[in-house]
Amino acid sequence: MKMRSNWLATILLVVLCTSLATADNTTTTTVAPTTAATTPVPKINVMKSDLCKKCVCLSNPDYSQIDCSERKMNLLFSVDEWKILQNGDVTFDVIKFEHNNITNLTGFPSYPVKRLYLGFNHIETIAKSAFANLTQLTKLDLSHNKLKVKQLDPDVFRGVYDVHDYLPLGKMIELDLGYNELHSLDPDVFEHLPNLETLILSGNTFQVVDHNAATAISGLISLKTLDMSFMELAELPDYLLHGPRDLETIILTGNLFDELPDDLHLAPNLRELVLDENPIGNLTGDNVFPTLPYLTYLSMSYMPDLEEIGAGAFSELQNLTTLILASNPKLGRIDVNAFSKNTTNPEILAYPPMKKLHIHNNNLTTLEHKLFQRWDLITELDLRYNYWTCDCSNRWLIEVLMVQINNTTPLWIHDVNCYQPNALRNLPLIQLSTEENRLTCSIEGGSPSGSLFLIGLLVGILLCIPILLGSVAIWRRGCLGLNRNNYGANRSLYNRANFNDELHI
Ligand SMILES: *[C@@H]1O[C@H](CO)[C@@H](O)[C@H](O)[C@H]1NC(C)=O
Ligand SMILES: *[C@@H]1O[C@H](CO)[C@@H](O)[C@H](O)[C@H]1NC(C)=O
Ligand SMILES: *[C@@H]1O[C@H](CO)[C@@H](O)[C@H](O)[C@H]1NC(C)=O
Ligand SMILES: *[C@@H]1O[C@H](CO)[C@@H](O)[C@H](O)[C@H]1NC(C)=O
Ligand SMILES: *[C@@H]1O[C@H](CO)[C@@H](O)[C@H](O)[C@H]1NC(C)=O
Ligand SMILES: *[C@@H]1O[C@H](CO)[C@@H](O)[C@H](O)[C@H]1NC(C)=O
């Protein structure tokens, strides 16, 4: 019985296997014609190829790149080299040709590269449709070349020709044109890049964003990041920020703005703004930030002319969590109402939810306690390299904030030093926060400024004695006067009575 059932089972198994195998055969035979047509050539072992001897190849499951930087190349790969890549067993996502001697960029053959780095060459011309065969390209770096407006033709970025029109380079989301010789842009230059999210134009001396350039940029409706640093700009044209509704990051470092750019309110979804190294003056009067409800990151550092942050300067940035306001050598005053905003309830002020406040290397002497309501939520507070005054006006800074910094970012308690008074110069503030070294700001306590306190007390007493004597004298005279008045009143009453009496008589 047992034997027979085993036999049955094996027969069943054999039948099953053969049916599976035939099923396999049938599927392979149906697929065979197409695979046979496309893979006659065996895959080339790219990592062992000559190409990877010439350049540095790297391949692992997360990242694959071929780096041909600094190879003194005049051209991209030869036809044979491209064949190796195209038929290789590794597909490189990243190709680098930086720091070579490429002057004319001819087209690329088909290859599914995702990021292409051509920076630091001498590229002057680019063929039309040069990148059309790179259909997977997401990032193109053409920075540090010699591109001029005329050579950067819209057709350069054309996609493949399909039936009766050119397709866009639809996957391209980042284009770096920084540090070329551009002074403007063709108004249609990005027409084949409808999904561009990041555009870098830094280091091109535009001086003015003219109508053509503004048209090109404002047409990028998917744009999220715009880098226009070091372009010698003093203002932005009105309509520049109208087009890209989702603009989240604007970088304007190293320009010539002497006040805040006018039209920031036209980028209401702005999340990050960098205005470093501009000669922007005081943030007072009209020169304060407009309402940017989503702005979380603001950097205003290395500003040679910034002396004062006035009331309301940041009041309309009610989502600000990071402020980098550092290395502004003249910045000496931050108004107590710089961040607060009136609410409908006059008793209540709104404050941004600040988490990172970097105000190091300025000319600050004091910090107002009421600048923020919830200092305790600030996890990064950098106060180093300022000119702090170590007296009772900064007692809260010394005894509360310094202890908080010691708990959150202990490295930043060093170099937060006293500048005034002279006797305490270069003393770390944290040393005045301990029980035994506290500033003497009331009768109890003692030590460093104890002598100051004594002088204060003496002056107080000296002033008080005459005042006291004077007021006693006045009181005494006042009392006599009052008595006399009462007496007089009584007397007048008495007189009147007398008068009445007389009248009745
Ligand atoms: C770069 O190419 C130009 C001509 O295309 C040549 O004159 C120059 O010597 C080359 N420079 C280097 C460093 O190879
Ligand atoms: C793109 O590929 C096609 C087919 O391989 C080729 O004929 C064409 O020249 C390539 N385009 C460029 C700009 O090299
Ligand atoms: C702050 O930003 C968050 C999302 O980033 C948003 O939900 C919130 O409404 C913003 N706050 C204000 C005051 O606009
Ligand atoms: C820093 O502030 C002090 C006054 O507190 C002022 O005398 C000095 O000139 C300021 N320094 C600079 C560089 O503006
Ligand atoms: C906020 O309220 C204060 C006092 O009520 C007022 O002096 C100040 O002008 C108000 N600020 C704004 C920007 O309305
Ligand atoms: C700073 O923090 C350290 C470690 O938490 C602690 O030992 C030290 O006493 C603190 N210093 C002051 C002055 O509070």
UniProtKB/TrEMBL annotation:
SMART domains, per database record: LRR_TYP
UniProt keyword Membrane, yes or no: yes
Keyword Transmembrane helix on entry = yes
Keywords of this entry: Leucine-rich repeat, Membrane, Repeat, Signal, Transmembrane, Transmembrane helix
Residue ranges crossing the lipid bilayer per the database entry: 452-475
The record's section on Pfam families has: LRR_8 (PF13855)
Q: Where is the signal peptide?
A: 1-23
- Coiled coil segments of this chain: none
Q: Which PANTHER family match?
A: SLIT RELATED LEUCINE-RICH REPEAT NEURONAL PROTEIN (PTHR24373), TIR DOMAIN-CONTAINING PROTEIN (PTHR24373:SF275)
Per its record, how is this protein called by name? Leucine-rich repeat neuronal protein 2
What is the originating organism of this protein?
Zeugodacus cucurbitae
Q: Taxonomic lineage of this organism?
A: Eukaryota, Metazoa, Ecdysozoa, Arthropoda, Hexapoda
